[in-house]
Automatic annotation (TrEMBL):
Residues 84-96 have a biased composition (Basic and acidic residues). Keywords: Signal. Residues 61-104 are annotated as: Disordered. Residues 349-439 form the Transglutaminase-like domain. It comes from Flexistipes sinusarabici. InterPro entries: Transglutaminase-like_domain (IPR007562). Residues 1-20 form the signal peptide. This is Transglutaminase-like domain-containing protein.
């Protein structure tokens, strides 16, 4: 159909004689007009689409993963000698290579701007720090033109056209280059485009529109909506995001992700159905580390077990802490999919190896349980942050307090990483615990559950002094949902 339209246009074009005073080349350029300035036809079509396809959508309050509040104070179990099984397999030393020496990415140089024949490039450059890496970006000066104070869909359409007829390609290519060099997953791309757009534009609306444009060009499904002359970015996710206002558009939830930084959004927005061609949802995480520079700090961790006092020096990368500071609250599996920094992995494994080597697997699990129970002080997220926030294992070491799901995630990480045992999470109303599956059948009398043909023994990293097979009294009679971590 497109080919037929272009053929018809060319037929009409060449059927009309060019004025004598114009060269044939000048005449062609004039007839094509602004269409020739678009780099892609989909931009021209999307510009026209944005002029008319808008309507009002009401906001939905962010989904609460658990309406039952967490306890203010955690009960303590009576200290007891952990049970052991004589024929339980012994723990051997977990060998872990030292943290790899990442190539220092002190500066990522900008890509040269593409200059079209007969034109002079007018470019600007920005520089900013991105979690320890110096980023330099060159862009067409036309991209930095501000949007204006009044917001209408017609003005948004014209702004998309302005960006699409500017030389946006160097900016998009540089963003792709930074993504590759830093090994960023989708959350990193969102943060990167946020930094780029807010460094180019000081006003909020222009920065949001540029972020929308860059993400669309990178292949992400993203929308913008507006209310009372304020523009909001909307992103869909492959996984549920909790606590974030969303809008249901064509049976898809679009989250107002920028609210993670200012905690507010509109109760309704004007936005559009349909999407930019070739767009896909955000996944937000993946199983590889970003390649951030090592900005390490140490924290001393103390705990007691069976009358022995232990003191560990654990290392964390502050660039990772900053990276996950505003990470959206999502499914618990996500916090084990994205691994901690190499320095953290090395120090925590090395420290616990000294304590559990030669012990039975059951005793080793009990030592890790006591470590998480005693070394990290409990406090609810609402008291520490003012909102719900699930922590990665590295964040649990960094922040002064953690609650039940944070401790369960750290415990699961340690048992899997050091002992190589399978762990599931038990999601109770207002509480999260864990259960451990052993590689060999054991004759153990503690509380256990069957899951997918395997026996798992309960382990509660929040219930202080509790050992393997015990359940916190607050939830022992409650139903729970199993959250597998193998995927």
């Amino acid at each position: 159909m497109k080919k037929l339209m272009i053929f018809a246009f060319l037929f009409i074009l060449f059927a009309i004689p060019a004025p004598a005073e114009q060269s044939f080349e000048d005449y062609i350029n004039k007839q094509f007009g602004e269409f020739q300035n678009f780099k892609e036809e989909r931009d021209r079509e999307f510009t026209e689409f944005l002029k008319k396809q808008w309507k009002e959508f009401n906001a939905f309050k962010g989904i609460d993963p658990d309406p039952v509040p967490k306890p203010f104070k955690i009960p303590q179990a009576q200290p007891q000698t952990p049970k052991d099984i004589p024929d339980s397999p012994k723990v051997t030393k977990k060998e872990i290579p030292p943290p790899p020496e990442l190539e220092p990415l002190e500066k990522i140089k900008p890509t040269e701007a593409i200059v079209e024949p007969g034109k002079t490039a007018e470019t600007s450059e920005i520089s900013f720090d991105f979690f320890g890496t110096k980023i330099n970006v060159i862009f067409d000066k036309n991209i930095s033109e501000t949007f204006g104070m009044t917001v209408t869909n017609d003005k948004i359409s014209k702004y998309w056209k302005k960006l699409s007829t500017a030389d946006y390609r160097p900016l998009i290519n540089q963003t792709k280059d930074i993504k590759k060099k830093l090994n960023l997953h989708d959350w990193g791309i969102y943060l990167l485009t946020r930094e780029i757009s807010t460094n180019i534009h000081k006003d909020r609306n222009s920065a949001t529109l540029l972020r929308w444009y860059i993400l669309s060009k990178l292949g992400y499904d993203t929308k913008i909506g507006f209310k009372n002359n304020k523009i909001y970015l909307l992103l869909p996710s492959q996984y549920t995001l909790y606590g974030i206002t969303y809008f249901t558009i064509e049976e898809t939830r679009y989250y107002a992700v920028d609210a993670l930084f200012n905690r507010n959004t509109a109760k309704s927005l004007k936005t559009y159905e349909g999407k930019y061609e070739g767009a896909d949802k955000f996944a937000f995480f993946r199983t590889e580390n970003p390649k951030f520079r090592n900005y390490s700090s140490d924290k001393t961790i103390n705990f007691n077990y069976s009358g022995e006092k232990y003191s560990f020096n654990l290392r964390y990368n502050q660039n990772y802490i900053g990276y996950y500071k505003f990470f959206p609250q999502t499914v618990l599996n996500a916090y084990l999919v994205s691994p901690p920094s190499p320095g953290f992995q090395s120090t925590v494994v090395k420290s616990l190896n000294r304590v559990i080597r030669g012990k039975s697997e059951i005793e080793a699990v009990n030592i890790i349980l006591r470590f998480v129970q005693r070394a990290f002080e409990y406090k609810r997220d609402m008291e520490q942050f003012g909102f719900e926030k699930y922590l990665t294992p590295e964040e649990t070491v960094f922040y002064p307090y953690s609650d039940c799901e944070d401790k369960a995630i750290l415990f699961a990480y340690l048992v899997r990483e050091i002992l190589g045992l399978d762990v599931i999470l038990l999601d109770y109303p207002g509480h999260v615990a864990a259960a451990v599956g052993f590689n060999k059948k054991i004759n153990f009398g503690g509380k256990s559950i069957g899951y997918k043909g395997k026996r798992y023994y309960t382990a509660d990293p929040t219930y202080v002094n509790a050992t393997l097979g015990m359940v916190m009294p607050l939830v022992k009679d409650k139903d729970f949902k199993v959250i597998p971590l193998s995927n």
